[in-house]
């Protein structure tokens, strides 16, 4: 068999995928071997000349493409010309040649791309030849009515798109400067290309339609009257209806013509999109271009298509073409508009000439979305006119076309989402800066023709588009809400100046009206009483009313105590509900509402507060008459809407709490505070009788009201809006605006009421969300306050009070275990923080009120007694060796509680931290924990082992991160040393699991920041990371680090990155000590070198290690370290060269960030203040590397050394210069491996030639 027959047979068998995997692998390797032959491109040309087999053609073109990319500079001039001319003939063949060898145009498009890739290397020289071929593609016949004509056009447009795509594509084959030069040359021909595209498009659409639409755009000021607008719209609809419904003698023939026409339009628009992405867009016929884009925008509008389909149902018509093909035209048109508005490199003077056309295109496309617009009447009259004029229409074959209608409706829904999302994307920049700097003087006229554009009417259309068209499509609606946020942000920045805030700025009345209308519409959408039908559809994931607190209390469940430590997540976040459509909708809506409130907070908040007051009355009445309420269907629905609106108001006010301080008076806040306390008490009482409602939906509603009430109270507490004083000041100016000042008695009554509600819900409610939120309210009372803030009154600490009972819950293990894990965490944090805070620490309080100071000092002493005598014993009783041996579960729980108690110190000051440390030290619990930890087995008790590490991490976070606190933990350094020794022993028989390594990394990173404590530990920590953590990442061995690191980067790449980051940080923290010792340096560099072994396929790890090394050199001049230069630099350099020359390593692709990073560091390690050290580079890197990859290394090394010596050290110190020379070497090595494979006769049976024989087959200049 011939080589061609073997190739064809192999490709057919390979793509059939019916052979065994071994056989397919053999075929693949044989095809790769054939492709890698130096002369394979000659065979490829031969195959293309005689075959039209798609697989053979694509394979052959792939060979030629690889030759151009990898071996082009090593071909002779005649060989280059042979390839170039063949591709030109093959891609741009005439009709006769094409009819003799029918190749699908997809193959020809690839040929055009490859031919263009040659042209763009030397476009100035090949300019005439390239654009001569492009011009040929744009020569169209006089007739464009037959299928053959449209097919020919389609091929021409496809080839044009392929050529333009390749020409303006920036890749690693050409430099940035060359790319810019090519774009500049291309732009010179853009007017000619566009003129040809516009001409053929206008011929396909028809002159009457073109003239009608052009008349709309002639007036630059946007003035448009009804008659021409409606006439042009009528013609567009007629064209659309013809495509959809008109039939012929042969329905398949008509369908083929319509589809070809739409494909032509799609290709034209894709070409235009490419041109607009790089063109200067200055020398264009804007009226002509935007007329076409407007036509296509309307042709493919889902609303237009939907209206035409609706108006055709009375005649039982069915589309004869897929409606998605028409919608695609509209989306391509939007893409063209997006290319223009998103260009950042266009001059303002140029953009000003384009924007009025873009605005009108979008304004008119949104105008027809209004139900008041007579689009349906127009469509009905057009369909009737077509029927009456004798046009053959495509009717449904079935009398009942319900299935077809359902399919079309489903398609329209899918199309609408994508189409309107594209609309939102193009509107985003238009509603901000563009809308302001492009308007002529008369563009803000609100009166006059509906069809005339003005900026105010445009925003009104966007408003309608938002709440009528986009809102049913939740993803698009959320996106357009972000658009309005961008608009408001721009208004704030545009009208505010250095001397005035946004609220005091003079915002034009029309903008104020837009914002006011936006607020009203937004509030209507979030209230159930206004939008129940829509909101009920979103609310599909509403949580169940009774979520009992029967969590798993087994040993493993206590992992929840420390599982979030590494992510630094507050325990309150663990209560977050699963994200749903409704939650996303409310979050986006309330974020926008908060943004609106920047402009007029009083109006917005009074509007929400009025709704809150209205619904609260209904809620209060329900709570007082719960048992006597008789619920009928209409009553239930009304009550449901009222309760949901009350919860919405509470959530809205929580989002608006940042603006409370902007209110001119505090009257509303005082009323709100009283209402919230009253409402919470009523809600708690109602929750006790929830089952009497008997309707789960209403039970859920009540729960949401109480949760929202608690959340708003927490916002008020944490926002600092409530102030406490011994006596309310009489001087109004002393009270900050928007704040409330309470007397001590009022504060005590307020906190007592909240504590009673929290206590009741925590201890009695069966609903987990109510318990958790009540505990968070308790936490807010304690943590969010500053003395003399909202701490509970002193009498609450006496026996029998609710606060004393909550403290008792934390001091009695049996009661504490009865709560869910979340509650245990919150309660332990809150109670510990309360007992640690010194309430008498207020500045100058002793001078102002000595009696108050004495009372607070006595209270603080009493709390300290509770801490020492009641809370600490639960730790000492559970955290000892006896309990560890007899009751592991009790020990585990005690350790988790202590970890959480430590976490309570995070927001507290030094005094509280010292008090906690003294208490822990005096009771001996710290020493007991270390003894217990030494007795813990890593292999069989991994969870307990992790729990210990979590405690150490928390302890280090609190006490080990600052010099000032180092003195508080004198035994910490010794204990960490013991920890490392325990790990060394344990890991000899058991592998560290990821959570253990993760906790250890956090602990070591925190320890490293304490430079005083870390100094003596650094060598041991470094050895531990290198010999223990790195090895344990993938269960390997230290003798095969490359394989270990490779496996680790595949199994857990993020953890692998963290380990190496900690390794580099450890070495950098104690650089002077570690870098001066050969053993320490080896422990550091061995794992780093293994990253560059060629086995790691994660480019992030490669790049990160290079960045770490570069940073190390920047900080400490590491590359000039004598030990590194003499013992390690050569090894690293050879590994880097190996990676750069490796053709199969997926981590280092040509032109990738990884390749750039490796070249940069390879250059950096040989750079000195005097320049690049060429001799050292050749001697220590190049020659050893070539010895491994080439047998005839002397020729390469000598030639490259000659070139290097021609450049001065200062010249080679420039990275770009070094990169260009190195690329020559890399190309040569990639093309000339140690063993070359050449096909001899039968495909797949190869003979092996040595390098000298292979290279002698054709001339090679390695320095080309």
TrEMBL record:
Q: Look up keyword Cytoplasm and say if it applies.
A: yes
Q: Which Gene3D superfamilies does the record cross-reference, listed alphabetically?
A: Leucine-rich Repeat Variant
Name of protein: Importin N-terminal domain-containing protein
For this protein, what is any one GO molecular function term?
A: nuclear export signal receptor activity
Q: Name one GO cellular component term.
A: nucleus
- Could you tell me which residue ranges the Importin N-terminal domain spans? 28-83
Protein source organism:
Rodentolepis nana
Q: Name one GO biological process term.
A: protein export from nucleus
Tell me the compartments it is located in.
Answer: Cytoplasm; Nucleus
Q: What InterPro entries does the record tag this protein with?
A: ARM-like (IPR011989), ARM-type_fold (IPR016024), Importin-beta_N (IPR001494), XPO6 (IPR040016)
């Amino acid at each position: 068999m011939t080589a061609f027959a073997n190739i064809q047979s192999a490709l057919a068998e390979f793509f059939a995928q019916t052979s065994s995997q071994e056989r397919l692998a053999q075929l693949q390797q044989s095809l790769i071997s054939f492709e890698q032959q130096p002369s394979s491109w000659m065979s490829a040309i031969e195959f293309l000349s005689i075959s039209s087999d798609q697989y053979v053609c694509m394979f052959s073109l792939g060979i030629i493409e690889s030759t151009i990319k990898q071996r082009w500079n090593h071909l002779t001039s005649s060989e280059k010309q042979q390839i170039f001319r063949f591709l030109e003939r093959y891609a741009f063949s005439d009709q006769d040649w094409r009819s003799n060898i029918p190749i699908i145009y997809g193959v020809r498009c690839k040929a055009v791309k490859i031919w263009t890739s040659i042209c763009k290397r030397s476009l100035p020289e090949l300019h005439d030849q390239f654009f001569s071929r492009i011009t040929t593609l744009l020569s169209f016949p006089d007739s464009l009515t037959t299928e053959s004509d449209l097919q020919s056009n389609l091929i021409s447009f496809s080839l044009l798109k392929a050529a333009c795509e390749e020409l303006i594509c920036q890749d690693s084959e050409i430099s940035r400067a060359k790319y810019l030069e090519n774009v500049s040359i291309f732009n010179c021909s853009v007017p000619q290309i566009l003129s040809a595209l516009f001409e053929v498009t206008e011929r396909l659409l028809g002159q009457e339609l073109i003239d009608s639409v052009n008349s709309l755009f002639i007036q630059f000021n946007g003035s448009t009257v009804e008659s021409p607008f409606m006439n042009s719209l009528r013609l567009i609809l007629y064209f659309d209806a013809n495509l959809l419904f008109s039939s012929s003698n042969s329905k398949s023939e008509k369908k083929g013509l319509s589809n070809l026409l739409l494909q032509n339009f799609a290709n034209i628009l894709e070409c235009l999109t490419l041109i607009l992405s790089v063109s200067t867009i200055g020398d264009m016929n804007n009226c002509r271009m935007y007329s076409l884009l407007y036509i296509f925008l309307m042709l493919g509008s889902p609303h237009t298509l939907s209206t035409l389909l609706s108006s055709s149902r009375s005649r039982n018509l069915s589309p004869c073409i897929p409606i998605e093909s028409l919608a695609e035209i509209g989306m391509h048109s939007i893409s063209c508009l997006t290319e223009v508005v998103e260009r950042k490199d266009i001059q303002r003077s140029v953009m000003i000439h384009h924007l009025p056309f873009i605005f009108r295109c979008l304004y008119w496309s949104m105008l027809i979305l209004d139900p008041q617009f007579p689009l349906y009447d127009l469509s009905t009259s057009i369909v009737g006119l077509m029927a009456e004029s004798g046009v053959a229409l495509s009717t449904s074959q079935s009398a009942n076309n319900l299935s077809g209608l359902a399919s079309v409706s489903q398609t329209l829904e899918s199309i609408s989402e994508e189409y309107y999302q594209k609309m939102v994307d193009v509107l985003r920049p238009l509603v901000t800066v563009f809308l302001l700097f492009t308007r002529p003087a008369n563009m803000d006229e609100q009166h006059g023709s509906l069809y005339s554009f003005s900026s105010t009417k445009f925003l009104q259309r966007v408003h309608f588009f938002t709440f009528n068209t986009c809102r049913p499509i939740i993803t698009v609606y959320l996106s357009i809400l972000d658009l309005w946020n961008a608009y408001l942000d721009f208004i704030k920045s545009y009208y505010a100046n250095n001397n005035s805030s946004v609220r005091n700025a003079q915002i034009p009345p029309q903008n104020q009206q837009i914002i006011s209308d936006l607020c009203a519409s937004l509030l209507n959408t979030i209230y159930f009483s206004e939008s129940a039908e829509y909101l009920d559809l979103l609310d599909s994931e509403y949580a169940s009313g009774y979520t009992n607190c029967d969590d798993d209390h087994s040993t493993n469940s206590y992992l929840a105590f420390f599982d979030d430590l590494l992510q630094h997540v507050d325990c309150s976040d663990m209560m977050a509900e699963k994200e749903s459509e409704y939650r996303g909708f409310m979050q986006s809506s309330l974020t926008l509402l908060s943004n609106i409130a920047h402009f007029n907070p009083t109006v917005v908040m009074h509007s929400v507060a009025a709704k809150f007051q209205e619904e609260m009355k209904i809620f209060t009445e329900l709570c007082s008459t719960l048992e006597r309420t008789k619920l009928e269907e209409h009553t239930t629905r009304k009550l449901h809407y009222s309760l949901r609106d009350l919860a919405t108001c509470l959530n809205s006010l929580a989002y608006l709490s940042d603006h409370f301080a902007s209110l001119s008076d505090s009257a509303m806040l005082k009323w709100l505070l009283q209402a919230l306390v009253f409402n919470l008490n009523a809600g708690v009482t109602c929750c006790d009788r929830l089952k009497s409602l008997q309707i789960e939906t209403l039970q859920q509603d009540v729960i949401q009201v109480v949760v929202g009430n608690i959340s708003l109270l927490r916002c008020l507490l944490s926002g600092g809006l409530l102030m406490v004083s011994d006596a309310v000041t009489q001087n109004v100016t002393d009270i900050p605006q928007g704040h409330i000042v309470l007397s001590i008695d009022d504060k005590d009554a307020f906190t007592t009421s909240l504590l009673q509600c929290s206590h009741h819900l925590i201890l009695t409610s069966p609903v987990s969300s109510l318990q958790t939120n009540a505990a968070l309210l308790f936490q807010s009372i304690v943590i969010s306050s500053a003395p003399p803030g909202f701490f509970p009154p002193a009498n609450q600490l006496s026996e029998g009070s609710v606060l004393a009972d909550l403290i008792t819950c934390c001091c009695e293990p049996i009661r504490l275990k009865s709560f869910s894990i979340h509650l245990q965490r919150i309660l332990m944090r809150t109670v510990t923080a309360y007992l640690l805070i010194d309430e008498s620490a207020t500045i100058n309080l002793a001078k102002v009120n000595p009696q108050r100071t004495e009372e607070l000092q006595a209270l603080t002493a009493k709390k300290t007694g509770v801490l020492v005598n009641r809370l600490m014993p639960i730790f000492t009783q559970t955290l000892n060796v006896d309990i560890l041996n007899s009751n592991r579960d009790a020990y585990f729980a005690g350790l988790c509680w202590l970890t959480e108690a430590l976490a309570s110190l995070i927001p507290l000051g030094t005094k509280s931290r010292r008090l906690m440390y003294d208490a822990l030290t005096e009771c001996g619990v710290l020493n007991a924990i270390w003894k217990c930890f030494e007795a813990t087995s890593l292999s069989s008790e991994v969870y307990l082992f992790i729990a210990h590490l979590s405690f150490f991490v928390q302890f280090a976070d609190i006490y080990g991160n600052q010099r000032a606190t180092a003195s508080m933990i004198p035994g910490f350094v010794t204990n960490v040393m013991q920890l490392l020794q325990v790990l060394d022993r344990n890991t000899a028989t058991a592998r560290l699991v990821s959570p253990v390594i993760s906790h250890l990394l956090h602990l070591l990173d925190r320890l490293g920041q304490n430079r005083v404590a870390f100094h003596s530990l650094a060598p041991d920590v470094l050895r531990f990371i290198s010999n223990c953590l790195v090895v344990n990442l993938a269960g390997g061995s230290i003798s095969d680090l490359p394989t270990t690191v490779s496996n680790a980067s595949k199994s857990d790449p993020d953890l692998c990155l963290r380990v190496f980051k900690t390794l580099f940080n450890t070495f950098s923290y104690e650089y002077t000590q570690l870098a001066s010792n050969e053993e320490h340096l080896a422990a550091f560099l061995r794992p780093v070198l293994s990253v560059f072994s060629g086995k790691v396929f994660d480019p992030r790890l490669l790049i990160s290690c290079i960045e770490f090394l570069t940073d190390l050199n920047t900080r400490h001049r590491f590359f000039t370290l004598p030990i590194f230069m003499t013992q390690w630099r050569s090894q690293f350099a050879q590994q880097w060269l190996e990676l750069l020359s490796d053709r199969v390593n997926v981590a280092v692709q040509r032109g990738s960030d990884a390749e750039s990073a490796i070249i940069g560091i390879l250059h950096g390690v040989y750079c000195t203040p005097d320049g690049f050290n060429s001799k050292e580079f050749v001697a220590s890197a190049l020659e050893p590397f070539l010895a491994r990859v080439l047998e005839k290394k002397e020729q390469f090394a000598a030639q490259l050394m000659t070139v290097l010596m021609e450049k001065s050290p200062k010249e080679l110190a420039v990275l770009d210069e070094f990169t260009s020379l190195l690329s020559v070497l890399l190309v040569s090595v990639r093309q000339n491996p140690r063993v070359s494979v050449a096909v001899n006769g039968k495909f797949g049976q190869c003979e092996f030639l040595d390098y000298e024989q292979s290279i002698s087959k054709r001339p090679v200049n390695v320095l080309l």
